[in-house]
Amino acid sequence: MSRYLLLPAALLALALLHLHLEPTVPLAGQWALLWGAEPEQFAEFQFFYSALPRVAMALLVGGALGLSGSVLQQLTQNRLVSPMTLGASSGAWLALVCAAVWAPALAASHGHWIALLGAALSAALVLLIAGRHGIRGLPVVLAGMAVNLLLGALASGLVLLNDQYTRNLFIWGAGDLAQTDWHWVLWLLPRLLPVAVALALFAPRPLTLLRLGDDAARARGMSLWPVLLALLVAALWLSSLATTAVGLIGFIGLLTPNMARFFGARTARDELLFSTLLGGLLLLATDAIALGFSRVSTDLVPSGAAAALIGAPALLWLLRSRMHAQDQSAIRLPGERWRVTRSHWLAVATAILALLLVNLTLAPAGQGWQWSWPDELLWSLRWPRLLTAACAGAGLAVAGVILQRLIRNPLASPDIMGISAGATLALVLGVLLGGNSIHDGGPLLAFGGSMAVLAILLLLGRRHGYAPAMMALVGIALAAFLDALLQFTLAKGNDQVFAILGWLSGSTYRVSEAQAGWLTAGILLTWLLALASGRGLTLVSIGDGIALGRGLALDRTRVLLLVLVSVICALVTAVMGPVAFVGLLAPHMASLLGARKAGSQLLLASLLGMALMLLSDWLGRVLLYPMQLPAGTLASIMGGSYFIYLLARKRAV
C-alpha cells in the first residue's frame, strides 16, 4: 500500500516540476487556467496549450507503454520482452513510413490502424521465428532483434529514396511529446482508456493461471489460445496508439515491469497497475530531462532519445544480477549435411568470379544495358567499391562464425551483440562532438568504440559465465543508445543528416583506393588469425568443460577471439559503415552446405559473405539507376528476408 501512496505523490511533484520548465505562469494563474479561465497572455497560452497537454501526453503514453510491457512480459513469462524487443515498434514505424510515402492521406486519417497492422505483423513474425518454447527464453529476444534490423533497413531505404516525403518524420521517429493543443490528448484518451480498464479487470486471472503453466491453465477451464491472442492484440494496440501519437519511444515498456517487480509487485494485478503508474512517472521524468536540456542548448532533444539514453544503463543495472550462464538459446544450427561437397565449393567459387565479372562489366547506361570492360576512369571508381564490398562481407562472416561458436548461440552476430554498434557509436559521437564529417572517422576511433563494448561484455560476462542473455541485453541496450543519438542527430535537421543516414546504411560510395587497400590487408590478417585459432574455437564451441579438459586456456582464448571480432567490426565500420545480417546469415548458409568444422565454416562463410556483399553492391548500383542504394541496405534486406525464412522453418521445438 505504501507504494501506491508514494507514487501518486511523486507523479504530482514531478508534474509540477515539469510545468515550471516551460515559461512560468504564476501559481494562481495556473489554477485559474485549470479551472476554466481563458488565457490572455502568450505565457498563459503556452502553458495551457503546450505545457499541460505535454504532461498529459507523457502520462498517457508512459502508462500505455508500461501496461503493454507488463502484459507482454507476463504473457510470455520473459522479463526481456516488450513492444521494442518483439519488433512491434519497428513494425509500426515501417508501416507509418510506407503510408507517409505512398498514402499520406490514409496515414493522416487512419495512422493508428496502419501502425497496429505493422506492429501485429512484425510481432507475429518474431513469435513464428522463436517457436512455441522459444517465447519464454532468449530466442524470442534475439529473433526480435533480427526483425528490428530488417525492418530498420527497409525504413532507412525508403527514407533515403523519398526524403522529400519523410523529412517531417525525423522528429516523430525520435519520439516527440511536444504539443500545440489538446488534439492528440483527446484523440488518445478514448482509445486507450477502454482497453486499459478491460485489461485491469479481466487480464489478472488468465495471467495468474499462465504462471502455473499451460497445462494447469487448461485444467482450470481457460481457453488458452483465444485468451493469449486477445491479450497480445490488446498489448499491441496500446503500443501502436502510443507510436502513432508521439513516435518511437523505447525502453519504457521494457523497463517498467522489471521496476515494478523490483519494488515488490508480485501478483498479476499488482504488476499491471504499478507498471502503468511507473510508466507514466518514468516517461514524465525523462521528458523533463529532455525539456531541460532543450532549454539549455540550442538543439531539440527528443523525448524518445532521452528515454533510451536513460533506459539502457538503467536496464543493465536492474537486471545485472539476474542473468544466468545456463540461459542458453534453444535454437539449433540449421542443416543436416556434415561435410561440404566438392561441387558446393566449386559452385561458390564460380558464383564469386561471376559476380566480380558482372560488377566490373555489366551496368545500365543512358542507351540501355552495356556489357563492356570499364575504361580507366570507371576502373578507378569501381575497383575500390568492389574490393571493399568483398572484404567487408568476408570479414563480417568470420566475425559471425567466431561469435556463434564462442557463445554457442546460432543467433549471435556482431550487430546483435552490440560490437558493431560500439564502433558506429564512436564514429557518430565524433560527428556530434567534433563537428567533422562522418566519413573522416578512422579505424582507431571505431576500434575504440568496439573495445569499449568488448570491455562491457567482458566485465558483465565474466561474472555471469558469459551468459548469452547478458550479452544480448548489452547489445539491445547499446543498439537503443545508438539509435537515440542517431535520432537526436536527425532531429537537428542540419546538412549532415542524410550523410549520416547514408553512411549508416553501409555505403561504398566514397571509399578511396587507400581505404580499400588497408581494409583488404586488415581483413586478410584477421582471417588468417581466425584460421589459426581453429582448434581453440572448436573446443570452446563444444563446451567449457571439454575445453578445459583438453588444456585450453579458456578465458584467454575467449578474450582474444572477442578482440579479433572487435578489430574486424572496427575495420569494416570505419570504411563503409555498419552492415547487418551478413555476420548472421553467412555462417548459417555455410552450415546448411555442410561446413560443421571450424576451419571449413570460417572459409566457406567468408566466401558466402563476400558473394552476398558483391551482389548487394551491384544491385544497389543498377536497380534504381541513376539513383543508387547502399550495399548495406540491400544486404540487410536480402539477407534478413532469407534468414527469417530460414529461422521460421528451423525454429526451436
UniProtKB/TrEMBL annotation:
<keyword id="KW-1003">Cell membrane</keyword>
<feature type="transmembrane region" description="Helical">
    <location>
        <begin position="524"/>
        <end position="547"/>
    </location>
</feature>
<feature type="transmembrane region" description="Helical">
    <location>
        <begin position="52"/>
        <end position="72"/>
    </location>
</feature>
<feature type="transmembrane region" description="Helical">
    <location>
        <begin position="182"/>
        <end position="202"/>
    </location>
</feature>
<keyword id="KW-1133">Transmembrane helix</keyword>
<feature type="transmembrane region" description="Helical">
    <location>
        <begin position="416"/>
        <end position="435"/>
    </location>
</feature>
<dbReference type="Pfam" id="PF01032">
    <property type="entry name" value="FecCD"/>
</dbReference>
<feature type="transmembrane region" description="Helical">
    <location>
        <begin position="272"/>
        <end position="294"/>
    </location>
</feature>
<keyword id="KW-0813">Transport</keyword>
<feature type="transmembrane region" description="Helical">
    <location>
        <begin position="84"/>
        <end position="105"/>
    </location>
</feature>
<feature type="transmembrane region" description="Helical">
    <location>
        <begin position="559"/>
        <end position="586"/>
    </location>
</feature>
<feature type="transmembrane region" description="Helical">
    <location>
        <begin position="441"/>
        <end position="460"/>
    </location>
</feature>
<feature type="transmembrane region" description="Helical">
    <location>
        <begin position="345"/>
        <end position="366"/>
    </location>
</feature>
<comment type="similarity">
    <text>Belongs to the binding-protein-dependent transport system permease family. FecCD subfamily.</text>
</comment>
<feature type="transmembrane region" description="Helical">
    <location>
        <begin position="222"/>
        <end position="238"/>
    </location>
</feature>
<feature type="transmembrane region" description="Helical">
    <location>
        <begin position="300"/>
        <end position="319"/>
    </location>
</feature>
<feature type="transmembrane region" description="Helical">
    <location>
        <begin position="627"/>
        <end position="648"/>
    </location>
</feature>
<keyword id="KW-0812">Transmembrane</keyword>
<dbReference type="GO" id="GO:0022857">
    <property type="term" value="F:transmembrane transporter activity"/>
</dbReference>
<dbReference type="InterPro" id="IPR037294">
    <property type="entry name" value="ABC_BtuC-like"/>
</dbReference>
<feature type="transmembrane region" description="Helical">
    <location>
        <begin position="386"/>
        <end position="404"/>
    </location>
</feature>
<feature type="transmembrane region" description="Helical">
    <location>
        <begin position="244"/>
        <end position="260"/>
    </location>
</feature>
<feature type="transmembrane region" description="Helical">
    <location>
        <begin position="472"/>
        <end position="490"/>
    </location>
</feature>
<keyword id="KW-0472">Membrane</keyword>
<dbReference type="GO" id="GO:0005886">
    <property type="term" value="C:plasma membrane"/>
</dbReference>
<dbReference type="GO" id="GO:0033214">
    <property type="term" value="P:siderophore-iron import into cell"/>
</dbReference>
<protein>
    <submittedName>
        <fullName>Fe(3+)-hydroxamate ABC transporter permease FhuB</fullName>
    </submittedName>
</protein>
<feature type="transmembrane region" description="Helical">
    <location>
        <begin position="138"/>
        <end position="162"/>
    </location>
</feature>
<dbReference type="InterPro" id="IPR000522">
    <property type="entry name" value="ABC_transptr_permease_BtuC"/>
</dbReference>
<feature type="transmembrane region" description="Helical">
    <location>
        <begin position="111"/>
        <end position="131"/>
    </location>
</feature>
